[in-house]
Amino acid sequence: MGRRFVEQLRDGDQIEDVYLATDKQLRANRNGNPYIQLELRDRTGGISGRLWNAGENLFRSFESGDFLLVEGKVQNFQGSLQVILTHIERAETEKIDLTDFLPRTEQDVNKLYDKLRGYLLRLTNPHLRALGECFLMDDTFVRGFTACPAGVKLHHAYVGGLLEHVTTMMDIADRLVPFYPGTDRDLVIVGVFLHDAGKIRELTYGRAFGYSDEGQLLGHIAIGVEMLTEKVARVPELTGEAFPRELLVRLKHMVLSHHGTHEFGSPKVPMTPEAMLLHGIDMIDTRMHMILREIKEDRNNSTAWTPFNHTLQRRVYKGGANGDLYAPAPDSYD
Amino acid sequence: MGRRFVEQLRDGDQIEDVYLATDKQLRANRNGNPYIQLELRDRTGGISGRLWNAGENLFRSFESGDFLLVEGKVQNFQGSLQVILTHIERAETEKIDLTDFLPRTEQDVNKLYDKLRGYLLRLTNPHLRALGECFLMDDTFVRGFTACPAGVKLHHAYVGGLLEHVTTMMDIADRLVPFYPGTDRDLVIVGVFLHDAGKIRELTYGRAFGYSDEGQLLGHIAIGVEMLTEKVARVPELTGEAFPRELLVRLKHMVLSHHGTHEFGSPKVPMTPEAMLLHGIDMIDTRMHMILREIKEDRNNSTAWTPFNHTLQRRVYKGGANGDLYAPAPDSYD
Amino acid sequence: MGRRFVEQLRDGDQIEDVYLATDKQLRANRNGNPYIQLELRDRTGGISGRLWNAGENLFRSFESGDFLLVEGKVQNFQGSLQVILTHIERAETEKIDLTDFLPRTEQDVNKLYDKLRGYLLRLTNPHLRALGECFLMDDTFVRGFTACPAGVKLHHAYVGGLLEHVTTMMDIADRLVPFYPGTDRDLVIVGVFLHDAGKIRELTYGRAFGYSDEGQLLGHIAIGVEMLTEKVARVPELTGEAFPRELLVRLKHMVLSHHGTHEFGSPKVPMTPEAMLLHGIDMIDTRMHMILREIKEDRNNSTAWTPFNHTLQRRVYKGGANGDLYAPAPDSYD
Amino acid sequence: MGRRFVEQLRDGDQIEDVYLATDKQLRANRNGNPYIQLELRDRTGGISGRLWNAGENLFRSFESGDFLLVEGKVQNFQGSLQVILTHIERAETEKIDLTDFLPRTEQDVNKLYDKLRGYLLRLTNPHLRALGECFLMDDTFVRGFTACPAGVKLHHAYVGGLLEHVTTMMDIADRLVPFYPGTDRDLVIVGVFLHDAGKIRELTYGRAFGYSDEGQLLGHIAIGVEMLTEKVARVPELTGEAFPRELLVRLKHMVLSHHGTHEFGSPKVPMTPEAMLLHGIDMIDTRMHMILREIKEDRNNSTAWTPFNHTLQRRVYKGGANGDLYAPAPDSYD
Amino acid sequence: MGRRFVEQLRDGDQIEDVYLATDKQLRANRNGNPYIQLELRDRTGGISGRLWNAGENLFRSFESGDFLLVEGKVQNFQGSLQVILTHIERAETEKIDLTDFLPRTEQDVNKLYDKLRGYLLRLTNPHLRALGECFLMDDTFVRGFTACPAGVKLHHAYVGGLLEHVTTMMDIADRLVPFYPGTDRDLVIVGVFLHDAGKIRELTYGRAFGYSDEGQLLGHIAIGVEMLTEKVARVPELTGEAFPRELLVRLKHMVLSHHGTHEFGSPKVPMTPEAMLLHGIDMIDTRMHMILREIKEDRNNSTAWTPFNHTLQRRVYKGGANGDLYAPAPDSYD
Amino acid sequence: MGRRFVEQLRDGDQIEDVYLATDKQLRANRNGNPYIQLELRDRTGGISGRLWNAGENLFRSFESGDFLLVEGKVQNFQGSLQVILTHIERAETEKIDLTDFLPRTEQDVNKLYDKLRGYLLRLTNPHLRALGECFLMDDTFVRGFTACPAGVKLHHAYVGGLLEHVTTMMDIADRLVPFYPGTDRDLVIVGVFLHDAGKIRELTYGRAFGYSDEGQLLGHIAIGVEMLTEKVARVPELTGEAFPRELLVRLKHMVLSHHGTHEFGSPKVPMTPEAMLLHGIDMIDTRMHMILREIKEDRNNSTAWTPFNHTLQRRVYKGGANGDLYAPAPDSYD
């Protein structure tokens, strides 16, 4: 029988399953008896749990961030569900299906990866094609690239999000390049491929989404340039030729400048047509993803507006819901 | 007998009156019994109410934003007053005096309106005077203009606030124009009249102050220009002449530029003496209103400073209250 | 025989043709004899002209901005060509082919216009399709829309530039919308159509490119919203139905917000998917146009970089030209 | 017979008068013979002068900034007037009427000063009135205050400009204070009086307008606070009482914050009603003065716009001059 | 026997000592019985206290900010310690050792002060040395300067913090000046001495750290310049000579510009070598102090990062703690 | 006999020497005869040269940027010196002493390099010391590092400038670290060493100072991180151990963040004590160098201020020169 996800729990349910434990606290109740409170999470959400009469030993037997095998009963408390726990113990990690604990793309990762491969292997420029192959031959890279989210919270924040973001951008690049003669299609495709590749080391996505220390200190732009430098060194093994120096500099420039301005953390602004187009497509895909997700995730159907989004610094108009489109002139105040 | 306003309620009072219900919640007490908690509001403030042992049916019988006829008893709970409710039901809207629920100007709206009319009907320029008349002949416009607040929270946030703001600015304009020869007094007066006129559609002020959908999407500047364009089309019916094109462009420019800079949402900066003066007077009246209101509304008399105001990004000095004007040199730390 | 354009003039040529006169000055030579100096322009460039021993009467017989019929001889002076004039007189405007004096799109305007019509007439939404028809039925509008540049200097600064910009954006919108389900394709297409429509009144493009007074005071955003409002009023004549109010507000919002931020002169930021996509496509097309034009117009082939562009605040990398890609380590300073 | 001012000079005039010499240079003509070139200025403008066959001794006999007695003849050279000098020598300063060399207010300085005195001597608050008297009793201060311009270039850049600026602001303050109950009129009047008083040491205005070293290093805000501190120390001699500490802090705060924001060089933002009103009035008077002067000084009547003003970062619309208010739809490009 | 500080309290302790009372509230328990809740503070931290069955008279017998003699028992409540009070009364201020209630520098204030004196008394320039003496002879100034914190929260926020900040900067200046010939060492030392001297009036530090009214309205920059002006007037009594005017202007300029930019509240930017160096040293010392304190105060040893610091707008990397330096490639999601 | 440098040339000198040719132009004189005009440069400055009656063949025989052997005579023309050339031909590069053509540090490069080596070879941390050795063993790197300027124009813009900047910063770091316990001295020293190392590829300094293509597209920050990555890979050959990963990330972070903010082109802000200190020392050394150079290079001794510096956005006060420190109160305007 399958797992009961957090979003499936109902008042009165008896549970015995593995959850990710966060925010553990040892508290005392009114009578001074200690109890453990923690948050149980999986990819569908979180629920509060309490284990009464818990000693310090049990409390120290696990850490926030561990997976716990828990037993208990769901109950409604002051309008919210919580779990009254009867047993907790650390779960063995090898038995855990990590995909239960992180949100993932709704698209088929294999198909997305095939699309990515297709774009790279059909490149005309032999050096760039060989560069693509070098990345694809690196299993660790591929495993990270197909798993990594594109962001922790802002956009595509789910397993496979980076791959989804990149393949969508490749499709768009494929359609836009013809409108701008003088723009090198192969460079744009490879720039799209690599612009966020550094995120596979910048972010952590083993259990929950976050930043690695290296990620916070260096950022995905610097990491991505380094990954590119490493792989380019391998290309001559495939092509028998030195990788053209100008081509490499152009590629690095695209990664460095893809945020568009200094203010957004790019140490260089786009100075080639390919870098400018990459920035534009990235901007469109991230902004459209955010704005459409805001609409989709806003479950409160009776309002015309989403809640305020701090990244976008605005609310998004969903429309269609109420009669306040035009302000009614008040009938009278008399 | 008149209504008991929220600010008049005292511990032990028995109440039976209509209030605006907001923030309704269904909660469970320690024993798991459900109760309704909500906020009861009128123009003088808000008070928390609880109705014990309330079922879901009652909870669903009204919405936040409805007017409720409530019965109950006021009591002091942990230093704050609350109402223990014994009965609630939706009130019929037609019996409600809306002025009980929205703050309104302390000035006489009729006198303010007469002043407005006076300024407009005594304009020298026949086209501008006829334009003023066209607005004054529009009952819906006049009802909105005399009721609308000038802002939701920032300044003049009460019924009649827009009218009060505009007539004060007209008085000021009347006194300042003579200092700046080459500035067209009639244009300034009409610019003052119309600069915020779009707010009567941007804002909602039927029950509580907020933004209409149109208001959020277009803003009062664009709406105001549109209202001006509509009314100008009627002027030739009064004057028998085409409205001068340059005059119209100058007026639109004043509405568009009255926030002074792009950063504050004006798509154009003031480029005529009249537009510059309008912006300056608007700036003075809104800032002075905010700063004086901060002082007036700060009931904590034992401090020399108001709380931090986020719009102004500062605290305001009230003064006169304490001995900390100069930092006392500490006597000794030995 | 066709006209000799400025860029075709060579040392020793005898000319007799019409040019646009600008920067006229009356000067005195070393002997104190007065002469007229002016700039002769057509769409291919400008050349300096001098008419010796010219009196004040001749000088006053025309204005800068007039078309002149000139006779003279081209000569090389200190490395630059100039014309020694023997005769000038004002030319009759009706005999002038204006297209000789303003740069124009290299594309076929008729085909671009057919594309525009195609997009508008095939819209699914009957209200939006009728709105498109109302614009297309307005000959003055169509004449302006097909002639107007998209900018005075920044991008698409040539006759037909606006049409070229808009049809390219329509093609792009057509390809991008499918990637963003939940985005209304018809709204995006009409938003693209109208976002810069106000430029046909903001700009002047009869003889040279510039801003109209109305354009400087109101800007194409406010003018465009006004044009939209006017035409929407005609739609019910075609559809027999009122134009949906929410649809209209969404369209106006797109025009108002298409610059993306307050700083760039939009009084509102994009708050719908359609407005966000419109802004993104506009950004890409204007930036790509500028960057590719910089490369194309930089005729100095011996450099790897274009001159500094003040709008982009950068130089653009053309590449491929020299050995300085990597800085050579200096051999020695000994 | 009076002086011939620069703006009165005509081709062929013989002159013998004193001018301020600036930009002196020693040059060589085509034959290698040295000549002196300099600019001759008075308050109405400047004209170029040349003295042929001048030796180094003569060149070194005066400095830029000296007054010279010059003899020569005015002639037209390449469309501009210049003076061919026959004699120059340093003029004795005591014989010079300085008012000939600096622009000065068109108003009557004595009347302006009487108005200033009137405002200060009629103050209700005895401490502030005595403070005003202390300033008025200081002849050096009064001489500087009545002579000083309010700016070097930006606004009121003429002798008496500061006095004119301050008295206009006093008149405005007098009219605005009644609209804002809770605002101390006396404080506002004295704040207006002192807000720019530091300019009498910040600026130099003996011969030409500029900044003193102290002015550049400290600024008129810091200097003004120091002047206030000095004079306040004298007030008890008049009143027999200590100057109230809070009143002094409020006054200093007004001077410190009158530029409104950090960006414009105020170390503090206005935090009292009086400081806010002072800032608002100052902003209006400086901006209106600049915009109206732009219009007035633009003698080129054939344009609807003034030249670009770098302080305002805009051109100003004068209007009324041409047919480009609305962009003409081009008749045809065929 | 010494005082029991808050950080020494343990579950079960009986206390009878003086604490600073803050945040006092009168609340009612579940049975409606009133109780007093307050925060008891000393320089080591704060602890919550409750006194059951307290009447309004007792509640009104003291204010937040008073010192209270309290008796009670420490107990653990829900994981935090609190004090169940049995008696409270206002303490006589003269018996209180203020150093128990404010954090203070860990360094020896006497040694820091000796260092300060040493720097000032060994200055070469006799005017500057005499200026230093004038400050040192002023007991009130010295008492404030040695007690004052350098900030309320940001850096060196403890008694003696200003002295510590200044003497460290003097040591640094002493070592840096030799690298920049042309920089006047004496001026830099005195500039360091005085740059924040205005804080002894800007801040309050008698019982808790805060801003005086004068401090909020004028700021330490303006106050510091005023203090300098006052003391300079005394210097001739020691030297028998006028204080050199340029020297004084340079010193004032250093105080005025030490924040480096307008945005950070300096009305002038540094325009002399000495002012620039002062700004640089101040920037280093404040930033380094903040960043090192973040690391030191973050007691949660199991993380590699400090919490987000709002002044620095960043988290600080402590390092060394976990395995997330590099993001682990997830083993598998299958 | 040594070379005659440009700054040594005097009217009437006969010259026969090598100069760097720039700005070459072919012009025609009044009679239509062509002549060559060019600028002759060496490290002491530039002088204009003309070669009359020059043909196109000669003109095409060299490029701007070539070294020319020139013969001619210096003469004074309109107050400026110029060279009337009698012969020019391309000089053989191998015979040229490049140090004649680029400004170089006034310090002894060998001593500076010894200091650098000393700091690196005495590092305590074996990994960092070995890293330093790896750089020092790379002759190409050392040649570049000792020759490269620290900037093209802004600061240390001369051969050896980078080395001078870095060694000064090492000295300063050496003295400052002890004030900030918890800061790793070795990391700071190596961070100082490498922070601008990327400039040896970012800049070109073979003949004149400029940017390489790679430098413009990637910037010295990204290049420097790449150089560090390359060299770190060699360290285990010396130490026999892997380079500690955290140490490497901390070093890269220092290079990436040394500009302090995004606005100045750092993709990351300083998040460790060592990165913060590096940024502070860099800021001090660059700013002090600029401000002192402004004073030193301003040869116009009669003014108290340097010309406006666009990088610093200010003029620098030299002082001591005139009587305008305080504005003189004008004697009288009567």
UniProtKB/TrEMBL annotation, chains A, B, C, D, E, F:
Q: Name one GO biological process term.
A: rRNA 3'-end processing
Domain HD/PDEase: where?
A: 158-296
What Gene3D superfamilies does the annotation carry? Hypothetical protein af1432 (1.10.3210.10), Nucleic acid-binding proteins (2.40.50.140)
Q: Reply yes or no: does the keyword Hydrolase apply.
A: yes
Q: Which UniProt keywords apply?
A: Hydrolase
Q: Give a yes or no for keyword Nucleus in this entry.
A: no
Recorded hits in SMART domains, A to Z, give: HDc (SM00471)
GO MF assignments:
hydrolase activity; nucleic acid binding
- Pfam families given in the database record: HD, tRNA_anti-codon
Protein name, as recorded: 3'->5' exoribonuclease Bsu YhaM
